[in-house]
Structure formats: structure tokens, C-alpha cells
Amino acid sequence: MRLKAHAKINFSLRVFEPRSDGFHAIESVMQSISLCDYITLTPIASGIEVTCSDPYIPLGRENLVYRAAELLGGGVKIHIEKHIPMAAGLAGGSADAAAVLYGLNAECRMPNAELMKIGAQIGSDVPFCLTGGTCLVTGRGEVVEKQEPWPKSYFVLVCPDVRVATKWAYEEFDRMHLEVSPAIKNDLEPVVVSRHEVITEIKDKLVSLGCSEAQMSGSGPSVFGVVRHKYDAENIYDKIKENYSKLFLVETVDKGVEIINEG
């Protein structure tokens, strides 16, 4: 079986006090986008094997896809064709894990609510990635409410050559006690910008070229500029493609995981 595992962006992200379990409560509007990894699942007699097109991706239990397969009983070889940048605020690892759960559940056929609970054990973004589209996400990420699809939009997505650990971003948010301006839709953005000013530079560049707005996604450092029409997005993309090695022209999609073929 071959599946698409779609990345996500955060249209908004509000971060609240840590909960008793150590996780922060959040409120976020998340959106699936066309940028995706490709996951191939092949049955094997026993165990779990993971391979990946990116040699820097871990292949053992530290990879969320391994943990997903383990929770559903194993007996599978997983190949990841990687396109979503790592540690970029785009939920690449969670999307891959969601695709494995979704694909393996085609045989198990457990109820969606149960699959979502398993997803939440793996990572906070996995329940959203299983649902996909436009969602209001609360709790620590495990409460996902599907919304009306976002109007078709295009995004110029820039991933600067820095990595941001989600754990660090939330710890710094607690330490800095920042008063976040209402004009900033992502509470983690000022925290990450304090270390990586390139994020502000990218935002300013995208807006100056015609994006209606630009902001950081998740815990960063990815930045997306919003464009209503595809030809305008293509024009902006062409103007900056020589400046960034990780640049993508993407659009809204209404699924987090898609089965391409079941062979």
C-alpha cells in the first residue's frame, strides 16, 4: 500500500499553562497542505523494518512510524519517501505516523475514535494528521474538531536552514513569560524569532512581494506566505527560488492521509 502523508501549517496557535501531565494546553487552527511524504507499507512475516530516502532519518523506535506500527502489531516494512523538512513546524514525523496507522487500520478496521487515541499516544499532532483538512485543535492536540474547509488558498512556504526542537520552543515560552501581541497569531513565534531572526526577514520578504500575510508555522522555523491566486504564488516563488534551498509552493487540501494505491 502506498499513501500520501500531508504536512500541516498552523493558521493560529495559542499556548496556555502546562497541564498536570506536563504538556501545554493549546488552541490552534491547523490546515493540511499539499506538501507530503510518501509512505509504502509492505507486509512481512514478523517484526518492523523501516527504510527512508533521507539518510538522516532514524529508523528505529525513535521514529514515530516504528512506534505506530508497533502499536498495531507489527509485521510490516515501512518505506518513507521524505519531502517534508524535519524539525520545521510542519508535523512531518506525525504525518508519517498517521499514514502508517491509517494504512494498517485498513485491515484492523478499528473505530476512528480508538485510532485517534492510539495516535495521541504517539505524538500530539498525530490525531490532527489522521483527520486532516481544516480543524480546531485543543487539549494538548488530541481534541480535534473538523471545520468547514478553508477557501482554496496557496502558500509560499520557506524553511530556513535552522532546526527548532519543539520541546525547546515550549520551554523557552515558559521561561521568557512574553506578552504576545494580538497581531501575532502564533504564540511561539516571538520565542523562536529571539534566536532565529531570519524568520522575521522571511516574513517581511514574503509580504513585500505580495503575500497578504506571512507567519511562522507551529514551533518553526518554517514560514508561510498566504496568496489567494495560484499565478501570484508562482510569481513570488520564482522571485525567491534562488535564495532558499527549501522553498515550496503548496495549497490547501482536505485530507491528512490519502491512499494512492492498495497494491
Automatic annotation (TrEMBL):
GO terms for biological process: isopentenyl diphosphate biosynthetic process, methylerythritol 4-phosphate pathway; terpenoid biosynthetic process. ATP binds at residues 85-95. Its EC number is 2.7.1.148. It is an enzyme of class 2 (transferase). It catalyses: 4-CDP-2-C-methyl-D-erythritol + ATP = 4-CDP-2-C-methyl-D-erythritol 2-phosphate + ADP + H(+). The active site is at 8, 125. Keywords: ATP-binding, Isoprene biosynthesis, Kinase, Nucleotide-binding, Transferase. Pathway: Isoprenoid biosynthesis; isopentenyl diphosphate biosynthesis via DXP pathway; isopentenyl diphosphate from 1-deoxy-D-xylulose 5-phosphate: step 3/6. Residues 63-133 form the GHMP kinase N-terminal domain. Residues 184-245 form the GHMP kinase C-terminal domain. One of its GO terms (molecular function) is ATP binding. PANTHER family: 4-DIPHOSPHOCYTIDYL-2-C-METHYL-D-ERYTHRITOL KINASE, CHLOROPLASTIC. NCBIfam families: ispE. Catalyzes the phosphorylation of the position 2 hydroxy group of 4-diphosphocytidyl-2C-methyl-D-erythritol. Belongs to the GHMP kinase family. IspE subfamily. This is 4-diphosphocytidyl-2-C-methyl-D-erythritol kinase. It comes from candidate division WOR-1 bacterium RIFCSPLOWO2_12_FULL_45_9.
